[in-house]
Design a protein that fits this description.
Blueprint: E1 2-7, H1 13-25, E2 29-34, H2 44-51, E3 55-56, H3 65-72, E4 75-81, H4 83-91, H5 97-104, E5 110-115, H6 119-123, H7 125-136, E6 140-142, E7 146-149, E8 155-159, H8 163-175
Parallel strand pairs: 1-2, 1-4, 2-3, 4-5, 5-6
Antiparallel strand pairs: 7-8
Helix pairs in contact: 1-2, 1-8, 3-5, 4-7
Length: about 180
């Protein structure tokens, strides 16, 4: 199975490394696409080493790469999915590498969303609405965040789901 993993900017980006590692160990191919802010937390070289594939960080480094990568994927995932990125998806914006690749994803291909953010952001009515809009489209499978002590010190929902749980949802989504 070919898995396209979109990594957004947020402290939970480091956990995407474990997700890539687990996915490769299960025998799946992984390509990583990063937002402009994601390398603030984990560099592309780390994902290249873990996946064995180049990482896309710039939509226009190769004008047609986003189409090729979208066609390559059997399933896509966004982990962590930031509040900002969820808003982009819900509104159909394609202004960075991950959102552009996802916009080009062939119909029928599933996208797993694993949100991670501060509790207040997670509970914000706009984020709740955006997730509802995405769920209603029938293409997106949401892996709810866990409740725990977050990097900001708050305790509540917002932590990235366990990478093994995200992988299980990716595999289930790809199977249909």
């Amino acid at each position: 199975m070919n898995v396209l993993l979109c990594v957004t900017g947020g402290i939970a980006a480091y956990r995407a490394c474990e997700l890539v590692s687990l996915t490769v160990k299960r025998g799946h191919a992984v390509r990583v696409v990063m937002t402009r802010s994601a390398p603030t937390f984990v560099g592309p070289t780390t994902f290249e080493a873990l996946s064995g594939h180049p990482v896309m960080t710039d939509t226009f480094a190769d004008a047609l790469a986003h189409i090729e990568w979208a066609k390559w994927a059997n399933v896509a995932a966004v982990a962590p999915a930031s509040a900002n990125f969820l808003g982009k998806l819900a509104c159909g914006l394609a202004d960075d590498a991950p959102s552009t690749v996802l916009m080009a994803l062939p119909r029928g291909r599933r996208v797993v969303l694993a949100p991670a953010m501060n509790t207040e952001m997670w509970l914000n009515p706009v984020v709740v609405r955006n997730l509802g809009w995405l769920a209603d489209l029938g293409r997106y499978d949401i892996v709810a965040p866990t409740e725990k002590r977050l990097a900001c010190g708050d305790v509540g929902p917002g932590g990235l789901a366990e990478p093994a749980d995200v992988l299980a949802r990716i595999e289930a989504s790809a199977a249909g």
